Amino acid sequence: MLLVVFVTTLLSVAVQVATNMESLKFFGEAITSRSGSRLGRNPEVNMNTTELIRSKGYPVETHKVVTQDGYILTVFRIPHGRQNKNSKDPRPVVYLQHGLIAFSDNFIANPVNESLGFLLADVGADVWLGNTRGNIYGREHTTLDPKSLEFWKFSWDEMAQYDLPATIYYILNQTGHEQLYYVGHSQGTAIGFARFGEDLELASRVKHFIALAPVARVGNTKSPIRLLVPFSTELVLFLDTFGHGEFDIPEPLLKFLAGNLCERWGEIICENFLFLLCGYNTRSFNTSRSDVYISHGEGGASARNLLQWAQ
Fold it and tell me: Counting Cβ atoms within 10 Å, is residue 284 exposed (0-12), middle (13-18) or buried (19+)?
């Protein structure tokens, strides 16, 4: 977890050092336009979540969840698989929650037979892809401006306190079910551990909690990146000053990198960048989709959330 925190924070510092986030967005759009609006051989690089799901032949719905403190989260629903629309069998509800600096696409970025979201839909589940405040689908608020520092004053504590219960109760209300299955990955497990242990009523609404890469503490991290921990406060101060408390790599820039770094300038560079972020494991890595992983992997976060993990 510390590895992800500091590599991504340093990358954000590198791309923010010359200007602010709005200028970076303009720069990303400019280089994308100059290089061609549809970069890369794989069209999935340029798809948004709904386009990606529909391109595989699945239905998709877009829902808005409003938390008690006013954050508006976009969640996606795959109500059934490609072949079981009219099935009369019971359809269990499964809520998939992503990890740190990630977003819902993490569960659908692989081929159909290797993506958890699609696999669950095809075996009869009603699949919901969650998002938390601060990622690309969690940058709306009933009163706060996402460009203000006030909007970004949160960590995963608030995700556990507000985002998780709001999403669970919304899903149950929409489906009419009393319980659901919760699948969390990395930070998605941490917010589950934190909230379900305190809120027994909410915990009773979860039939099973499946924890993928569960996180309870990060003290045993062996990566050399942990040597940067003493500088975490300074890095966050930089992000507060130049990026209003937000960590993000602009989407147009990510798509440009995916279409060029991965396909034109050398796949090995792209692959090793992902290994640095996520851990080195060539046996579990689909090299043919590294461009998709780059363009659909990073969803943004708050600087304070990164700082909390570093601490």
Answer: exposed
Which backbone phi and psi does 169 adopt, to 5 degrees? -65, -35
Q: Please report, for the domain that includes residue 104, its CATH number.
A: 3.40.50.1820
SS3 147: coil
Name the pTM for this structure: 0.80
Instruction: Give the Cα separation of 257 and 21 in Å (integer).
Output: 17
Contacts of residue 264, Cβ cutoff 8 Å, sequence gap at least 6: none
Residues whose CB falls within 8 Å of the CB of residue 111, separated by 6 or more in sequence, listed in order = 286, 289
Number of structural domains in the chain: 1
Q: How confident is the model at residue 236 (pLDDT cuts 50, 70, 90)?
A: low
Give the domain extent around 128: 2-310
Where are the strands (E) in the chain, listed by range?
Answer: 61-66, 71-78, 93-97, 126-129, 140-141, 180-185, 206-212, 246-247, 301-302
Pull the structure tokens for residue 115. Answer: 């993506």
Rounded CA-CA distance 166/71 in Å is 10
Which of 106-115, 220-229, 289-298 is the least confident region?
A: 220-229
